[in-house]
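Session log. Operator J.P. requested a structure for one protein chain; no other inputs attached. Running the standard single-chain path with token output.
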Amino acid sequence: MTIGGRIKQARKAGNLSLRKLADEIGVSAMAISKYERDQDVPSSGVLLRLSQALKVNVDFFFRPSTVSVQLQAYRKHAVLGVKEQEVIQMRIQDWVERYLEVESLFPEEQHPANLPLYKVTSPDEIEKAALKLRDHWNLGYDPIENLVQLLEDRGIKVGIISGFEHFDACTFFADDDPVIVTKSELSGDRQRFNLGHELGHLILNLQGDLKTERAANRFAGAFLVPADTARFELGSNRTDLNINELFMLKHKYGLSMQAWIYRAKDLSIISENTARRLFRQFRVNDWYRQEPRKPYPSETPMRMERLIYRALAEDLISRSRAQELVGKPLQLGWEMEAQQQNDLAIRSSN
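Structure written below.
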């Protein structure tokens, strides 16, 4: 990608207009437009001001690798506008490019995801597909302790972005690698359901009249809590579910209380009427937005950052490059403190 293309990418990721960026760096909007269309090249001084205004390292403008991000499955609210979607896409593209760049330093770490694809024609077959994937990954029927870590270990790149109220999650392929991105402003149970939903988009080949989003929802519930596990916890036939019971199950399996109600309804453990009454209780108490009591903790992707610190330790990249790749201040405070303690111990022994 050219310098002009990088300027445009960073401007859109920052949700800045041509006029706004021009005012911030002291040039005309026409000048910015010419830079972006590669009709002119910014001077070193202008490039430095651009990096400050766009909150990117100068190295960003010369990054060689590029990837086209086409968001295939997209969980979003109806009010999410086209411009905001473009901002999201640019930010995700920047993250993926950084990820692929640091991964390229360690070819032995590049493992293909080898995701199976299951043809399904009914909800029962979606349940079976979830079990087949658990068998394929040797998971058994136990709760999945950390879903983000599991997906990363199975070759799926997982990203978290923040600042978009009406965006939930998306999935796509980057250089043939499956990628799932969700937003950070979520409780852990909602985050895990989003990840399970997007995983469904990756492995389900829908046939017949199955609705895409409903199928992915059904898969997410079935993958996090298989049918036999749900019946083991709830029983086969119930007339009601207790809120405290749902809270405890939420924290055991990382599946929200409301998703447990859906799960029980889908498996005919409770009736449609019972489910409606329970959902009404959540709405009346305003629990449908934030469920009662302690929230389930969110999970954090670690693979990309781990590779960056490994590259730094092996002197494959500089600290400034590491910070540009990680996209945030490096966590080196404890390292400096440990070095100071080590130096002090050496002086004391002498």
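Operator note: The first strand starts at residue 73 and ends at 76.
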